[in-house]
């Protein structure tokens, strides 16, 4: 199976361009990377992966941000704002409270548009330029649309986004709107939006930049590369576990791919690969269901609901890439309630780290797995927080305290404070 952690570095096929090609993870068919627009396999409709004849080693990386890792990417540079180089916060109180040896928080909300999606778009929009396509499009629970709108604008390209009506946080729509995306609100959930945008892409109406597009995941690999490099610099070892929120399972797939390529090049020992641990909201947990039941694929959930609207997804398209990632790294998946998510959002905020609800799912999941004894007290853990607090101001107000009205008078303010 091509997605094994110990799969050897692949042989370069004749269709490769500059040592890069596309390969189907289901049937192994290989395709030239940039000759035609293609999202899935021509032969079996399986998911495609970008493959490299020479996987990267640590010495290949220089510079800062996503493009520091261009040895692991299909291009030297992209359409950049720039992105990446996000903080790996220490959270000592939360670490002690959760009860693990080390807890660090990789805050992807610190990217230019406030989520990790920027890492995928800097590569994806670069590929769109290479292919010479006209309009860019995505379905989105919000963050992808904000990133696509901004990177499309940066690249001087037209963008179209399909959003589930009434289920996207205010900050994200505001971004897509100001960056001048054409916004279509669909009377359906994210999964229906993705069905439609895939149809539009298949009819040549737009270039699809959801994480079904294999090039987006290349950019998102750099989250894993940054975590490993920085963690090793600080502790001389790699984290035992990386805990992340899961929606379409793009990040889970991307991090796993980053680890696999490092193992292929000899840069990372198989025993040092962190356990990938996915967290979903209870109301939208098809990946957790598949892991718990030992299934090779997910069952589509038609009805999904959670306060963490970013991960309100019932049909994770990258499951065939992500399920092997969780299993091969000896990880797991867990579902958390909306209450647990909000509590974790407050916990992070108390350390000065402001995140949107979906992001806090990672910390909520870690807390739960630690309480259940699945995560040990001696583990070194990194939680991924995927989006910024300001993405969802309504959720922040709900989780936080209300402002207190006071008269326009110092004495009255003092009196109020003393109450
Ligand atoms: N966290 C946030 C803040 C997200 O916006 C998303 C996905 C995820 C986690 C899940 O990541 O799909 O790689 O498992 N948001 C997409 C969007 C679906 O449209 O913005 P995943």
Automatic annotation (TrEMBL):
Domain Tryptophan synthase beta chain-like PALP residue range list: 79-387
Signal peptide: none
CDD domains per record: Thr-synth_1 (cd01563)
Residues binding pyridoxal 5'-phosphate, per UniProt: 143, 247-251, 386
PROSITE patterns linked to this entry: DEHYDRATASE_SER_THR (PS00165)
GO BP: isoleucine biosynthetic process; L-serine catabolic process; L-threonine catabolic process; threonine biosynthetic process
Annotated GO MF terms: L-serine ammonia-lyase activity; pyridoxal phosphate binding; threonine deaminase activity; threonine synthase activity
Sites of N6-(pyridoxal phosphate)lysine modification: 117
SUPFAM superfamilies in alphabetical order: Tryptophan synthase beta subunit-like PLP-dependent enzymes (SSF53686)
Domain of life per record: Archaea
Catalytic reactions of this protein: O-phospho-L-homoserine + H2O = L-threonine + phosphate
Pfam families, A to Z: PALP
Gene3D superfamilies noted in UniProt: 3.40.50.1100
Cofactor(s) listed in the protein's UniProt record: pyridoxal 5'-phosphate
Sorted UniProt keywords: Amino-acid biosynthesis, Lyase, Pyridoxal phosphate, Threonine biosynthesis
Pathway assigned to this chain's UniProt record: Amino-acid biosynthesis; L-threonine biosynthesis; L-threonine from L-aspartate: step 5/5
Record-linked PANTHER family: L-THREONINE DEHYDRATASE CATABOLIC TDCB, THREONINE DEHYDRATASE, MITOCHONDRIAL-RELATED
Function text: Catalyzes the gamma-elimination of phosphate from L-phosphohomoserine and the beta-addition of water to produce L-threonine.
Protein name: Threonine synthase
Source species: Haloferax volcanii (strain ATCC 29605 / DSM 3757 / JCM 8879 / NBRC 14742 / NCIMB 2012 / VKM B-1768 / DS2)
């Amino acid at each position: 199976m091509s997605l094994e952690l110990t799969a050897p570095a692949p042989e370069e096929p004749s269709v490769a361009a500059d040592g890069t090609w596309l390969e189907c993870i289901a049937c192994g068919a290989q395709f030239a990377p940039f000759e035609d627009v293609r999202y899935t396999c021509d032969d079996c409709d399986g998911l495609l992966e970008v493959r490299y004849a020479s996987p990267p080693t640590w010495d290949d990386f220089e510079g800062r941000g996503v493009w520091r890792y261009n040895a692991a990417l299909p291009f030297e540079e992209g359409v950049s704002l720039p992105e990446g180089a996000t903080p790996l916060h220490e959270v000592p109180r939360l670490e002690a409270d959760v009860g693990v040896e080390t807890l660090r928080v990789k805050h992807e909300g610190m990217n230019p548009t406030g989520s990790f999606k920027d890492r995928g778009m800097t590569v994806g929009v670069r590929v769109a330029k290479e292919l010479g396509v006209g309009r860019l499009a995505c379905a989105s629970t919000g963050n992808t649309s904000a990133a696509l709108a901004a990177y499309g604008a940066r690249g001087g390209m037209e963008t179209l986004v399909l959003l589930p009506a009434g289920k996207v946080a205010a900050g994200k729509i505001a971004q897509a709107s100001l960056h001048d995306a054409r916004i279509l609100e669909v009377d359906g959930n994210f999964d229906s939006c993705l069905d439609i945008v895939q149809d539009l892409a298949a009819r040549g109406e737009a270039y699809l930049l959801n994480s079904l597009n294999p090039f987006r995941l290349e950019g998102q690999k750099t989250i894993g590369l940054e975590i490993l490099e920085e963690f090793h610099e600080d502790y001389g070892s790699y984290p035992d576990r990386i805990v992340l929120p899961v929606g379409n399972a793009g990040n889970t797939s991307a991090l796993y791919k980053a680890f696999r390529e490092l193992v292929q090049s000899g840069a990372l020992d198989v025993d040092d690969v962190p356990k990938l641990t996915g967290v979903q909201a209870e109301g939208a947990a098809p990946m957790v269901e598949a892991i718990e039941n030992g299934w090779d694929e997910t069952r589509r959930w038609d009805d999904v609901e959670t306060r963490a609207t970013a991960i309100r997804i019932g049909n994770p398209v990258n499951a065939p890439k992500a399920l092997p990632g969780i299993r091969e790294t000896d990880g797991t998946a867990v579902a958390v309630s909306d209450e647990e998510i909000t509590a974790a959002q407050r916990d992070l905020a108390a350390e000065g780290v402001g995140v949107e609800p979906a992001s806090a799912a990672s910390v909520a999941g870690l807390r739960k797995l630690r309480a259940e004894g699945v995560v040990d007290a001696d583990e070194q853990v990194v939680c991924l927080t995927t989006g910024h607090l300001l993405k969802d101001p309504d959720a922040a107000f709900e989780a936080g305290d209300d402002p207190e009205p006071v008269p326009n008078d110092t004495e009255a303010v003092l009196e109020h404070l003393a109450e």
